[in-house]
Specification:
Keywords: Hydrolase, Membrane, Protease, Serine protease, Transmembrane, Transmembrane helix
Strand content: 15-25%
Helix content: 40-55%
Oligomer: single chain
Protein name: Signal peptide peptidase SppA
Subcellular location: Membrane
Largest sheet: 8 strands, mixed
Shape: globular
GO molecular function, one term: serine-type peptidase activity
Structural class: alpha/beta
InterPro entries: ClpP/crotonase-like_dom_sf (IPR029045), Pept_S49_pIV (IPR004634), Pept_S49_SppA (IPR004635), Peptidase_S49 (IPR002142), S49_SppA_67K_type_N (IPR047217), S49_SppA_C (IPR047272)
Length: 588
């Protein structure tokens, strides 16, 4: 017994010492990262804009990304906000002579790329150069690259030019084999989020909306590339249909690129352009480093601000976390912004496919209360559909990019009957007692009666009526007209504007200008502040230590199976009615 107590005491002392040492180390690292690095931008500098990494609304800086180890993880996530700010500063900075783009395969949605592309076009008004080099270009990458003055493609590389596509996965066959019965309750012909459980292919309604959606996005894509490369839209489409741009030489022949060459040849061109000696290095500066030096692009009155509240990810109840929007946390942040007298107007920046219907309604209510006190403008990013649109419809005005995915006004419920699976596959059975015939309703461990199923459908119907009624009021149109645009149908930003679901086509800057105008603020007389703010390097380190890197670890461990595990987690997190668009709508 005495020996046992000695071991317990030694273990306890060891834990205490470990905690003290860890706190000491973390405090030292925190102190190291808390001091701001002073950055001086050299003359003849080139802003290096690397888009070959994840791009999200607000970036995350990981100081350990390059050294690897337990806290290294993948590369930093670049913030769209930071990219736009850097481009605005660089346009007016005499020390920045041009931009070097790395945009072979951006990890971003189409609307995010639209924001970046539009700001690059604005940068070009300064008459400074934009050059790009790629070993290959995806269609997303080429969408950005196409506006460059010099487009270099590796002679042994490639370019993707075969049109856009959207592919869906269907799991009905899997559930049939497992003897799991998905019970689907929905309203709306186009609410196709649940088809992956009930079908083995796309319904005609789903094909119709998906085809029209990617057609609208492709139209915007071709129109803008046509303007940048001076190639007719019909010719661009014909080249995709015939797969005629299938190698670097054909890309040069059809004027998709300006040069076949290697990176050293591009750098030789840059040195001649910058009048830098051949032996000297080009003074490249990345976005994060550049933003630590120089003046802000907006230096308005500190007491007059536009607050941009970022809502990115799936919608859930509670606090939420990285990658989703927790209604409780969102409401708390919005209340603080609303009660801040220095903030004169608010932009809700939405990038969400939806989620919990209840959480969406809770946030809608708070947006409505805020709109009674201050102007509130919605700015839609890559996607603002279902619950994402639910949030937007509570705002005074809605701004979307032409290629934003929006709409999907509809509700569904989903329950899995696992009785046969548990019994036949695992040998597990269920039995129980209750104080009434429906005490265990809704349930996944027995066959529900038709009456019980009808009660769930009744709730879904009522939720749909609430959604459409509030959307109609927010859009100032009749419920009948709104319902003709609803039924879960997904629209592009262009289509949504034509139907009155969106007010203005543009980006977050356009939304900020609308908010300022509504608050009667003059241009240059206010500042813009984002909420929540970008994580500090030390905060990111603590996050990684606390295990927030689980998704990356899962992806690394499971490879191609990771998306299916992610899907399983989504299913287990679904509670109550859902307002969400098709689960994985990836257009490429």
């Amino acid at each position: 017994m005495l020996q046992f107590l000695k071991y317990v005491l030694a273990t306890f002392v060891g834990i205490i010492i470990f905690l003290f040492v860890s706190i000491f180390i973390l405090a030292g690292i925190g102190s190291m990262f808390s001091s701001e690095e002073e950055v001086v931008i050299e003359e003849k500098s080139v802003l290096k804009l690397d888009l070959n990494k994840p791009i999200q609304e607000v970036g995350v800086e990981n100081p350990f990304a390059e050294i690897g180890g337990p806290f290294g993880g993948d590369e930093n996530a670049v913030g769209l906000k930071d990219i736009i700010e850097a481009l605005k500063r660089a346009q007016k900075d005499d020390n920045i002579k041009g931009i070097y783009l790395k945009t072979e395969g951006p990890e971003a949605g189409w609307a995010t790329l639209e924001e970046i592309r539009n700001q690059l076009l604005e940068f070009k008004k300064s008459k400074k150069f934009i050059v790009t080099y790629g070993e290959s270009y995806s269609e997303k990458g080429y969408y950005i690259a196409s506006l460059a003055d010099k487009i270099y493609l590796n002679p042994a590389g490639g370019i993707e030019w075969n049109g856009l596509s959207a592919e869906y996965s269907f799991f009905k066959g899997t559930f049939d084999k497992l003897e799991i019965k998905p019970l689907v309750f929905r309203v709306g012909e186009f609410k196709s989020a649940i088809e992956m459980f009930s079908r083995q292919d796309m319904s005609e309604a789903s094909k119709k909306q998906s085809s029209e959606l990617i057609g609208a996005i492709n139209g915007n894509f071709l129109k803008n590339i046509s303007a940048s490369r001076n190639i007719p839209v019909a010719e661009l489409k014909g080249l995709a249909d015939s797969l005629a741009v299938d190698n670097p030489k054909s890309a040069l022949q059809h004027k998709f690129i300006t040069d076949l060459g290697y990176q050293d040849e591009l750098e030789a061109y840059l040195k001649r352009n910058l009048k830098v000696e051949e032996k000297k290095k080009i003074a490249y500066v990345g976005v994060d480093k550049y933003l630590k030096g120089g003046k802000r692009s907006d230096d308005g009155d500190f007491n007059k601000r536009i607050g941009v509240l970022v809502a990115e990810g799936e919608i859930t109840s509670g606090e939420g976390g990285d990658g989703n929007i927790g209604s409780e946390k969102f409401v708390k942040e919005l209340k603080e912004i609303r009660d801040n007298d220095k903030i004169k107007a608010i932009v809700i920046r939405i990038n969400s496919p939806g989620g919990s219907a209840l959480a969406s309604d809770v946030m809608w209510r708070e947006i409505q209360l805020t709109a009674k006190k201050k102007p509130v403008i919605a700015s839609m990013s890559d996607v603002a559909a279902s619950g994402g649109y639910y949030m937007a419809m509570g705002c005074d005005k809605i701004v979307a990019q032409p290629n934003t995915i929006t709409g999907s006004i509809g509700i569904f419920g989903l329950i899995f009957n696992v009785t046969d699976f548990m019994n036949n596959k695992l040998g597990i059975t269920f039995d129980g007692v209750g104080t009434s015939p429906h005490a265990d309703w809704p349930t996944a461990t027995r066959e529900m009666t038709e009456f019980e199923k009808s009660m769930i459908q009744k709730g879904v119907n009522e939720g749909y009526e609430t959604f459409t009624r509030k959307a109609a009021a927010g859009r100032k149109m009749s419920v009948e007209k709104l319902k003709s645009l609803a039924q879960g149908r997904v629209w592009s930003g262009v289509e949504a504007k034509e139907h009155g679901l969106v007010d203005v086509l543009g980006g977050v800057d356009d939304a900020v200008k609308l908010a300022a105008k509504a608050a009667k603020l003059n241009e240059g007389d206010y500042r813009v502040r984002y909420y929540p703010e970008k994580k500090k390097p030390f905060d990111e380190l603590v996050t990684k230590i606390m295990g927030d890197n689980e998704e990356k670890a899962t992806t690394k461990a499971l490879g191609d199976l990771a998306p299916y595990v992610k899907m399983y987690k989504k299913l287990t997190n679904m509670g109550g009615m859902q307002t969400r668009m098709p689960f994985e709508l990836v257009i490429r």
